[in-house]
Design a protein that fits this description.
By secondary structure, this protein is an alpha+beta fold. The chain has eight helices and six strands. The chain folds into two domains: 143 residues, no CATH class; 74 residues, Alpha-Beta Plaits (2-Layer Sandwich).
């Protein structure tokens, strides 16, 4: 049976390690931030302590047929945390999905909590350091290597009295380019600015063809490409 000091120490370490991961998510203003990650890691630690040491009296008082398997409760935590992680995943229009990394970090801090609850402090600490490094440092490297640009935009200055939104959309999609989002902002009663955001990085050739087609349309005042 764990002492009071050891129990409190394990719970405190779990809360701190979970908080370190949560700080990085909180920095990006995600719903699952500091407190969520701390609670997940702390709760996992408590469950592991209960699973490992909470039934010691029953085992001692029982016969040889009574056995203790702490891994059974740990396995339930690993699978059960998926429900909480699923709540952080957001599905936007087209095929845009956000929150997978936060869901993965929640699943990982659950494992950190189980490790602390089982007394594996070095494994828990090393995992926390690696998670923070992955979340904070790998993303800029990933962007540099793969050069992903999910926010390429076209800003079209139009006179809506002489053109239609449907006609402009058709001119863009004829080139096989998928529009992820469209925003309309009015400058005057007649003139407006339309911002088209594309789902994926498109080739410069395709973008130039779209710009040429839009500029030929009646009612289009100007077209600006923005990355």
């Amino acid at each position: 049976m764990l002492s009071v000091e050891d129990t409190i120490l394990r719970l405190a370490i779990a809360a701190v390690l979970g908080g370190l991961v949560g700080l990085e998510r909180e920095r990006l203003d995600w719903a699952a931030g500091l407190r969520t990650h701390m609670l997940v890691c702390l709760g996992s630690c408590l469950i592991m302590i209960v699973s490992s040491f909470g039934f010691a009296d029953i085992v001692k008082a029982g016969t040889h047929t009574v056995t203790l398997d702490p891994s059974r409760v740990a396995a339930q935590v690993v699978s059960g945390i998926g429900f909480l992680g699923a709540g952080t995943i957001l599905f936007y229009r087209q095929q845009v999905i956000r929150g997978l990394t936060t869901a993965a970090s929640l699943w990982t801090v659950a494992g950190v909590g189980l490790a602390v609850g089982g007394g594996l402090f070095i494994a828990a600490g090393a995992t926390t350091v690696l998670v923070v490094v992955i979340l904070g440092l790998v993303k800029p490297i990933e962007r540099r290597i793969f050069k992903r640009d999910l926010n390429k935009q076209l800003i079209v200055h139009v006179d809506l009295q002489n053109t239609s939104l449907w006609d402009l959309q058709q001119s863009i999609e004829e080139n096989g380019v998928l529009i992820n989002e469209m925003n309309l902002s009015k400058s005057t009663d007649q003139e407006s600015f339309i911002t088209y955001t594309f789902l994926k990085n498109i080739k410069s050739e395709s973008l130039n063809k779209i710009i040429e087609k839009l500029q030929e349309k009646t009612g289009v005042i100007s077209v600006t490409s923005k990355k």
